[in-house]
Amino acid sequence: MSGKELRLQGCAKTYPDGTRALSPVDLRVDAGEIVVLLGPSGCGKTTLLRMVAGLDRPDEGGRVLLDGRDVTALPIEKRGVGMVFQSYALFPHMSVAGNIGYGLRVQGWSRKRRDERVAELLATARLEEFAGRRVDQLSGGQRQRVALARALAPGSGMILLDEPLTALDAGLREGLRAEIAAMIKAQGATALYVTHDQAEALTLGDRLVVMDKGRIAQVGAPRDVYYRPQSDYVAGFFGPVNRLSGRVEHGVFTTASGTLPVPGRPDGETVLAFRPEAAIVGQDGGLAFRVTNALFEGSRQRLDLEGPAGERLVAHAPGIRPYSPGDTVTIGIDPDGLLAPAGGADAVN
Amino acid sequence: MRAPLLKWALAVPAGAFLVVFLAWPLFGVVTEAFSDGGSAFGRLTADPVFWHGLVGSAVLGTLAPAVSTAVGLAVALHIARLSPTARTALLTVIAVPLSFSGLVVAYGFILVFGRSGFVTMLLADLGADPAVVGGLIYTPAGLAIAYCYYLIPRAVLVIFPVVANFETEQLQAARALGASRFRAFRDILLPQVAPACLVAFALCAAVALGAYGTALALSGTQIAILPMVLYSKISDSGSDLPAAAAMSIVLIALACTVMAIAELVRPRVRSAA
């Protein structure tokens, strides 16, 4: 069983009342790849997913191709895509095995092949002992594994997941992320995964598509979009970004609060952009900042800092050593943690 | 502890009502039926009029609820797709027939479908025999259609909440697995609304078996259904009260059986497949 290749060409969506849910989008998802559509609600990610599913049609001119075949005009049941919903959408009048085997029954698999395939997926989903259970006897995490197994069962090679973990508790969600990715990879399926949760997207996705107001803001591997954001929007979507302006001369950065070595950085006016965790709190000979607020979060603490010229930073420090407002700390910056967007530091501003 | 006392006090008015207006009369009916040593049942089973009535009631009690449930399901599915405002408005309108007297409804039917009714005359112009068309509403089958008028709202009110709570993503999930619209409807939606449909059917059947106002207004005691036969046993000159009581018991038993079957089948429908 191998995953399908998905291509979207010029897919836009305008609703009858004239609102534009999606500007023309081009996207390619390789066979066997997990691509996460990420963005706040209303960014068009669900519309895009529904277009691939066949639940929404793109505006005139848009095309959806699965393995090179134009499926734009095909209804959902002719496309061969499995769907997983936030609400699980399991069939309550069928057992766990009945749910997983439903697609196989519809597609006319023989009894023997059906039983074998269902058994295989029960094993992949670690649900063997629940085969005969009713779905309302399962926990949320188990239900979503049944839903994914059901979507994977026919082996159509394309899985669409719409916020599948959003209805679950935070603790359960983290464990299930890895498990969902593993199940999809084990079946070799291609997956398009919609979420608004950055951590989920970064963990699960081979590539991320960050969306904003009906457009694609950036496409890239998780590390790329996190450390090389091409816009303020993408940078800010994954959490706060610090910016320090100053001057570089002979590899040394000078700003109001002190100096830092920045080897390899060209001379001239510049802005250093970095995330809170790239700040090294307490580094000898760093920049001097005053703590204005300290939030203890257990394994780490979040420090709000202010420099002599009123410049503000957010830094993460280990949780062990307590800080209080008024303390003075020295700050270094991990050179690997400097955000280096494709268009240079200016693009971050 | 005043709470337990209050609990019982709250049940007293309804309890008194049940005793005075249900248990007592029911007891009276049973005593009356067996007053002459059970010979009333013998007279009943020997009477061809009773058997005609039983057949008529069986037709009426099956046809009317079947049509009402089918139409009610379709209406419920339609309402579930509407906006919340439109839903509330339509549900209110649908409940209106429930508050009309059966007599009013019957009179309206006579005006439209009777021997010289509007529709009958229209069909007569097209070559239909007005005597046949106009006679239709005076048969148990025709009466069944008339009953649907106030049975359909009942069916809608029973089925709608279940349809409204149905998660439409289930249909999308089924279709993504390759099921056609029809197949998804049959495999996924129908089994889940079936218990509600069954309850609606039973409720409508029980009402259809017992109702007589509409039938009486339409055709007097001419129509062969149990309540009419019963009515004639009480009111006509040759009244036979023990036989009427015996027939009442038959009628009650029929309605109870229908409701019981619905209750028994319901859990099995839920756990099927």
Q: How many DSSP E strands of chain A?
A: 19
Query: Percent of residues of chain A in beta strands?
Result: 25-35%
CATH topology-level name of chain B: MetI-like fold
As a whole number of angstroms, the C-alpha radius of gyration of chain A is 24 Å
CATH architecture of chain B: Orthogonal Bundle
The CATH superfamily of chain B turns out to be: MetI-like
Q: What name does the CATH topology of the largest domain in chain A carry?
A: Rossmann fold
User: How confident overall, as mean pLDDT of chain B?
Assistant: 85
Assign an overall shape of chain B: globular
Secondary structure: elements and pairs:
The complex is a heterodimer of chains A (349) and B (273).
Chain A: E1 6-14, E2 20-29, E3 34-38, H1 45-53, E4 63-66, E5 69-70, E6 82-84, H2 96-106, H3 111-124, H4 140-152, E7 158-162, H5 170-186, E8 190-195, H6 198-204, E9 207-212, E10 215-220, H7 222-227, H8 232-237, E11 242-249, E12 252-255, E13 258-261, E14 268-274, E15 279-281, E16 287-296, E17 300-306, E18 312-318, E19 328-333
Parallel strand pairs in A: 3-8, 3-9, 6-7, 7-8
Antiparallel strand pairs in A: 1-2, 1-4, 4-5, 9-10, 11-12, 11-14, 12-13, 15-19, 16-17, 16-19, 17-18
Helix pairs in contact in A: 2-3, 2-4, 4-5
Chain B: H1 3-33, H2 39-46, H3 48-80, H4 84-95, H5 102-113, H6 118-125, H7 130-135, H8 140-165, H9 169-176, H10 181-210, H11 213-219, H12 226-235, H13 241-271
Explain how this protein is built.
The complex is a heterodimer of chains A (349) and B (273). Chain A is α+β, with helices and mostly antiparallel strands and 349 residues long. Chain A has 2 domains: 232 residues, P-loop containing nucleotide triphosphate hydrolases (Rossmann fold); 100 residues, Nucleic acid-binding proteins (OB fold (Dihydrolipoamide Acetyltransferase, E2P), Beta Barrel), CATH 2.40.50. Chain A has 8 helices and 19 strands. In chain A, the strands form 4 sheets. Chain A has a 6-stranded mixed β-sheet with strand order 6-7-8-3-9-10, sandwiched between helices. The C terminus of chain A is likely disordered. Chain B has one domain: Orthogonal Bundle (MetI-like fold), CATH 1.10.3720. Chain B contains 13 helices and no strands. In chain B, helix 1 crosses helix 13 and helix 10 packs antiparallel against helix 13. The longest helix of chain B is centred in the first third of the chain and has 33 residues. Classes of the chains: A alpha+beta (349), B mainly alpha (273). Chains A and B meet through helix 2 and helix 4 of A and helix 9 and helix 10 of B.
